[in-house]
Amino acid sequence: MKVLVPIKRVIDYNVKARVKSDNSDVDLTNVKMAMNPFCEIAIEEAIRLKEAGTATEVVAVTIGAKTSQEQLRTALALGADKAIHIETDEKLESLHIAKLLAKIVEQEAPELVILGKQSIDSDNNQTGQMLAALTNRGQGTFASKVVVADGKVNVTREVDGGLQTVALSLPAIITTDLRLNEPRYASLPNIMKAKRKPLDVIAADSLGVDLTPRIQLVSVEEPAKRSGGIIVEDVAQLVEKLKTEAKVI
Amino acid sequence: MKTLVIAEHDNGALKPETSKTINAAIQMGFPVDVLVAGENIANMSETISSIEGVASVLVANNAAYAHQLAESMTDLVMSLTDSYSHIVASATTTGKNFMPRVAALLDVAQISEIIDVIDADTFKRPIYAGNAIATVKSLDAKKVITVRASSFDLQGEQAAVSINTLDTVSDSQLSTFVSVEQTESERPELTAAEVVISGGRGMQNGENFALLNGIADKLGAAIGASRAAVDAGFVPNDMQVGQTGKIVAPNLYIAVGISGAIQHLAGMKDSKVIVAINKDPDAPIFQVADYGLVADLFDVLPQLENAL
């Protein structure tokens, strides 16, 4: 079984995003970038499926500028067998990404596509579901457990109020939630080995997808700041303040 | 131009997110119809028909929609989209699941988790874990929008409007329901609670979360957790408050042993009053707290329970 794992290069999750002074966007100049945390979980799950003998090949794919090849190399170092870079300098939206990925799905014919549920920059939580729609596949989003057996995949999903398990006929699309697994770190020998693994580059505009923007970014602002409050001495003073000043209890 | 809102419920009770999402939808400026899909939902459709501003209610009452699986919900919504310019749902795990599927089939972008409506095409939404607020304008003819319900108010009531039953049934074979494991709790849901008390890594282990129970009982509070506490395995992920968990905006939020990582603040900083209890006076949580108490939580929690 072939598993395709789309990944995204984003701001490192430890870095606080700053808004540009002209309010046109977030400033990413000289900011540390990394693989989106949910994508790391997706790669890890695919590699575990391969280690368990369920998957035979893990293909990582990303869409973005040349710099995003760094994250593909990371995926290869973690255990992906080959990588595909769909190169573009355009800032694309989830729908464009899903359409480009649908082309790769057509080309590679994976039985499972595992994606992160959302990226920590645009926070859209859309691409996996859109890809499932465009390829007419079943979807198991926000996965906390994945079990492949008998031509089906059972996905346990983190939903409001508990866990829901669905059975999807293969081929299918899965998006990862936090507790699915704990991603490994790449070892130095594997990082070296990754440099020799295949990485194909495809120009985004060669795939015949309309990449016209559907959303106009009007402006980006800092969120309203909360003014810091006061430090209370003890529990008695806290309860008193909550009762008489804030009036919330 | 008309707006279709898809109701949020758990096959039994209508969730408050529905009313808040209707509030957002009305601000888009067009008549609002509400679709409710599920099994045994007759009572719910009556409740919806009495929510202020609803023009009519569409009911798809069928076993095929019992678990609101994305594939069947998408087919159902797609059968209705011709009549609507705006398709709106709450950004719950149900709405987040099927709405992008609808958007892709309509060949339009989705605008996720809006927190403000500027006009029929323009919305505000948080990006980068709430560290920035983007104003975005949809250029598509049809809009597919999910709403962060905690940013909108509940609607009032009105005289009941007409309820129309839908006969079309789509039972997609792409996915089937296997099982559900509900979190058993007598407490209010995190996203609906007036008071939330959350524990972080400072709680040290899962057993210590029991220290929050007595306080939550006295305040009628829901109990939440930081991602650090979830990652450490103290508590299940559905208790997580933050960018990657639930977004809450209660009247009172009490953060216990939570340092205040960016990703946690993104989930609770719109609370009306924030209390932080942490023994580290430099913890970033104190920068957003209205009331801070620098103390060991294991001393403070029993005292707090007694004082309430």
Structural notes for this entry:
The complex is a heterodimer of chains A (249) and B (308). In chain A, 26% of the residues lie in helices and 33% in strands. Chain A is α/β, with parallel strands linked by helices. In chain A, helix 3 packs across helix 4 (127-134). Helix content of chain B is 23%, strand content 27%. Chain B has helices spanning 16-26, 42-49, 70-78, 93-106, 213-219, 227-231, 262-268, 297-307, and strands at residues 3-6, 32-38, 54-61, 86-90, 110-114, 116-117, 122-127, 132-138, 143-147, 163-165, 175-182, 195-199, 222-225, 252-256, 273-278, 291-294. In chain B, helix 7 (262-268) links the parallel strand 14 (252-256) and strand 15. The mean pLDDT of chain B is 95. At the A-B interface, strand 3, helix 3, helix 4, strand 9 and strand 10 of A face helix 3, helix 4, strand 5, strand 7 and strand 8 of B.
The unreliable regions of chain B are none
* SSE pattern of chain B: EHEHEHEHEEEEEEEEHEHEHEEH
Can you tell me the overall shape of chain A?
Answer: globular
Unreliable residue runs of chain A? none
- Structure classification of chain B: alpha/beta
Separation of termini of chain B?
Answer: 52 Å
List the helices and strands and how they pair.
The complex is a heterodimer of chains A (249) and B (308).
Chain A: E1 2-7, E2 9-11, E3 18-19, E4 26-27, E5 33-35, H1 37-51, E6 57-64, H2 69-78, E7 82-87, H3 94-108, E8 112-116, H4 127-134, E9 138-149, E10 152-159, E11 162-169, E12 172-176, H5 188-194, E13 199-203, E14 215-221, E15 230-231, H6 235-244
Helix pairs in contact in A: 2-5, 3-4
Chain B: E1 3-6, H1 16-26, E2 32-38, H2 42-49, E3 54-61, H3 70-78, E4 86-90, H4 93-106, E5 110-114, E6 116-117, E7 122-127, E8 132-138, E9 143-147, E10 163-165, E11 175-182, E12 195-199, H5 213-219, E13 222-225, H6 227-231, E14 252-256, H7 262-268, E15 273-278, E16 291-294, H8 297-307
Parallel strand pairs in B: 1-2, 1-4, 2-3, 3-10, 4-9, 5-9, 12-13, 12-14, 14-15, 15-16
Antiparallel strand pairs in B: 6-7, 7-8
Helix pairs in contact in B: 3-4
